[in-house]
Amino acid sequence: MTTSATHQPLGALWPVSPLTLGGGGIAGIWGETTRQEAVQTVQTAVEEGINLIDVAPMYGRGEAESVVGEALQGRMPEGVHVTSKILLGTQSSDETLAKVRRSIGRSLDALKLDRIDLFFLHSNIIPNDYQFPGELAEDQHRWSVTEACFYEAVVPAFEAIQREGIIGAWGITGTGLPSTIMEVLKGEAKPQAVQVIANLLDSPGAIKRFPEAAQPRNIIRTATESGVGVLGIRAVQAGALTRAIDRALPEDHPEVLDYHHAAPFRALCETWNLDPADVAHQYALAMDGVDTVILGVKNREELLNTIQAAKEPLTAEQIEAIDALGLRKLAT
């Protein structure tokens, strides 16, 4: 596979295509698909020039990684890279290293590979004395890591495995407490890439667990200033920025609330005779500091539609019109 002129560096890492294939869609998280269709979607993505595939064990309980393993049969095309992730809690150094090794081993078996190019910590990173609101505080030690744990256990574990050549680089998912994420991005032991919310609402939707403002654009700016690669996630906010959410959700679900909040955006897209999902992806691709946008597509039709839309960037006037709707969630 040759590097396209549209590829750009992912921070200090390799050149990355504007679009990355995400594992959620091919694992059936964003609506129904089949194993055969998911496998063919991976193959088509690579054929169309997408050179990064972002998966994780938690996507369909290993389904996304198994789909990639079946699609590529352990033979990664030249220039194509794969990521995976781990959700850690606040544990000792020994427990952390052991859990990371087990998780990577299972991922490599499913992917049929001997190396993961970019490995992400998928946990929230919090101050040592931070407590999430309400019932979340009861089990936060299972899915969040304190700053002390991050620097004393997680970073050493990732760096040890990186030295062994099992992972090429490591990063974080920047959907946790914004102030802490930005501190990490500016720190000495900083990641090489970060996944950040990149949508026109600035909304993390249901994955937001803290009461503070999400600040995704400030996180992106901080990452860029620190030389950290930025992967934009949730371009269509889990379906809220599409014509219709394609799975059953309760009316008070954050994604449904965002869907109703985004009604003026869909109305604007209708005046342009454009699919709101395409426009949402185009908007994310145009955001300053975003190196690549991770897709949640679940089949070849959605994939090819988005690839085509990415070739037709929004005009400055269209971006201004979207921003003028005042839909950004600046305080929540």
Indicate the CATH topology: TIM Barrel
State the end-to-end CA separation.
Answer: 43 Å
Number of domains: 1
Number of strands: 12
- CATH-defined architecture: Alpha-Beta Barrel
CATH class: Alpha Beta
Q: What spatial form do the alpha-carbon principal axes imply?
A: globular
Q: Strand pairing plus helix content: what structural class? A: alpha/beta
Strand content: 15-25%
The secondary-structure element order is EEEHHEHEHEEHEHEHEHEHHHEHH
Please give the radius of gyration in angstroms.
19 Å
Protein architecture, described:
The protein has 332 residues and is an alpha/beta fold. It has one domain (8-323): NADP-dependent oxidoreductase domain (TIM Barrel), CATH 3.20.20. It contains 13 helices and twelve strands. The strands form three sheets. It has an eight-stranded parallel beta barrel with strand order 3-4-5-6-9-10-11-12, surrounded by six helices. Strands 1-2 form a two-stranded antiparallel ribbon. Strand 7 (124-126), helix 5 (136-143) and strand 8 form a beta-alpha-beta unit. The N and C termini lie far apart (43 Å).
